[in-house]
Amino acid sequence: MIKDNMTSLQRVLTTLGHKEPDRVPFFLLLTMHGAKELGLSIEQYFSKSENVAEGQLRLRAKYRHDSIYNFFYAPIEIEAFGGEVIYHDDGPANSGEPFIKNFQDIKNLKIPDIKKSACLNKVLKSAHILKEKVGDQVPIIGVVMSPFSLPVMQMGFDKYIELIYERPDLFSHLMKINEEFCVNWANAQLDAGTTAICYFDPLSSTTITTKEMYLKTGFEVAKRTIAKIKGPTATHMASGRCLSIIEEIADTGTAIVGVSVEENIQELKNSCKNRLTVMGNLNGIEMRRWTPKQTEDNVKRVISQAGAGGGFILSDNHGEIPFQVPDEVLMAISDAVHKWGNYPLIY
Amino acid sequence: MEKNIDDFMEALLSLNRVAARRILEDAASIDKISFIENVVIAALERIGEGWKSGIFALSQVYMAGRICEELIDEILPPGDPDRKDQPKMAICVLSDHHKLGKTIVYSLLRASGFDLLDYGTMEVEELVQRIKDDKIKIILVSVLMLHSALKVKHLKEKLDSLNLDVKIVVGGAPFRFDKQLWQEVGADAMCSTASEAVLVIKSVMEGSL
Ligand code: B12
Prior knowledge:
The complex is a heterodimer of chains A (347) and B (209). Chain A has 347 residues and is of the alpha/beta class. Chain A is 45% helix and 10% strand. Chain A has 15 helices and nine strands. Chain A has helices at residues 8-16, 33-38, 42-45, 49-63, 76-80, 118-134, 151-155, 157-166, 168-191, 211-216, 218-228, 246-251, 265-272, 292-306, 327-340; strands spanning 68-69, 85-86, 94-95, 140-145, 196-200, 233-236, 256-258, 277-282, 312-316. The longest helix of chain A has 24 residues, at 168-191. The two termini of chain A are 25 Å apart. The mean pLDDT of chain A is 97. With 209 residues, chain B is α/β, with parallel strands linked by helices. Chain B folds into two domains: 2-75, Methyltransferase, Methionine Synthase (B12-binding Domains), Chain A, domain 1 (Orthogonal Bundle); 89-206, Cobalamin-binding domain (Rossmann fold), CATH 3.40.50. Chain B has helices at residues 2-13, 17-52, 58-75, 100-111, 124-133, 146-150, 152-161, 173-177, 181-184, 196-206, and strands at residues 89-94, 117-122, 138-142, 167-171, 189-191. Chain B has a five-stranded parallel beta sheet, with helices on both faces. In chain B, β1, α4 and β2 form a beta-alpha-beta unit. In chain B, α1 (2-13) packs across α2, α2 packs across α3 (58-75) and α3 (58-75) packs across α4. Chain B is globular and about 50 Å long. Cobalamin sits between chains B (48, 51, 58, 61, 98, 100-101, 104-105, 140-142, 144-146, 169-174, 176-177, 191, 193-194, 196-197) and A (73-75, 91-92, 94-95, 145, 149, 152-153, 157, 200, 202-203, 207-208, 238-240, 284-285, 318, 320, 322).
């Protein structure tokens, strides 16, 4: 492999093997910015696979990052279950009123058929288009909500916490349904040309559940689910904390962990002990008002803390950069990685 | 007192309603208001602080608040004259549909002996109208999405243009991740945890905010 002329995919695979590639790989996990590129509203943009494919290609050409992000919005899975999605002009789509109104509804829940789901097929189609365009040059990242995190949108957060504590029987039943759906959905994306699956699981983060609870719930769910996904996975905490459960996250069989700015990335990296690649942890929300100097300093700091020896991908800490983050900041991140991210690191 | 707080916290964190009720009943026969002030609020504050520093999980914050709210509603029903003489306040989720933050703050304030109106989810226009109609003095705003947080700016402008004297107290994930955001949108205070709301309300009552 020619070290200083790697493709994005080679660069990422090298870091996943805990070796240093030519430079630090970086993922600008952009979704809604594609709409800006194409001059469309967010709702229009996500209505067609071709838009998302084109948006992703333009963003990558512009910022020279190492991934294609075929992520529409989290509640697309809720849409597949027959639930409501609410669009916004200046932010991500959100799920509407939960469709599980009371605990008993869980018993009648049907697993969506992916082939018949128009919204999910949009995602599969854009994966196809993207795969045709980029081949094996760039990893195409697809997204699933973890079976353990999805219920927040299915039934509301408060009811879900009560379900976990008070109705373990119905909780298990819901996990069975969601696990089957999640595995089908992940594998359909892989079949369509997706390189790796980002498994969003912030409910497992210690920001939301205790470690004790995680070991009984989210951990077991992740082990079962990830084992059946036929491709590499990255587990993302969506900016929730995970330092105290990092060993267990590695035990679930995932390859990457997306981490929060609320924890020290150097400490996280050390705890991974070469079992996991760390991805993170620029503060996406604060990023909106960073100056070029602050941007460069932040990129430099994170690389210096976690870059050495590979096993590291630079990205934001949530797995999606907010719509409000200006192009100048994104460009400054890219410039800083190209300036300070070349291996061997000089600081 | 310290032992009371520890025991009560322990009962809450292990979701032991029976133990929590026993501690409360034993002590409340003496002076329920001072028990709420010194034990319930203190325990909830410590749990909130523990969440902020990563020791406790949100599920514990939520369940603790809920247990306390239920217990306090029994010993101190809504409208009880012992409930605090306080400025009129209301809570809402601005624009988005994520109610958990609001639910936690609402439970916690009620468990701390405050009364407040729950407006549910609202957009700026209708919120301003309600604040005006209900003569609200403190509006507590919870958001989860960044674009909703930025709408507080419009809320502030509208309230100012009507010369309404209302304190805006904000909270929710975007404010925790960008510590300057609350000032940028013109709020009067920001809380990183639900229990911090108690301190902010006290400052308003003392006239220091
Ligand atoms: C768990 C989680 C998820 C779960 C569940 C989300 C949900 N609630 O519906 C899943 C995986 C489904 C998810 C999905 C998404 N998420 Co999410 N998620 C999170 C996470 C980790 C926790 C969110 C949460 O609900 N916390 C519970 C609430 C109660 O916590 P809280 O708001 O901090 O409130 C506490 C205090 O702040 C305080 N408080 C709150 N309000 C108030 C008000 C007052 C007056 C006071 C005094 C105190 C107070 O009290 C609470 C308890 O102490 C956060 C990141 C984080 N680390 O917090 C991201 C986060 C909320 N997600 C985010 C986003 C964008 C999304 C998506 C839109 C992504 C997408 N494009 O699809 C979707 C939308 C989901 C939907 N409902 O439609 C962003 C939102 C900000 C932004 N960028 O705009 C966050 C902040 C991540 C980030 N760092 O950017 N997510």
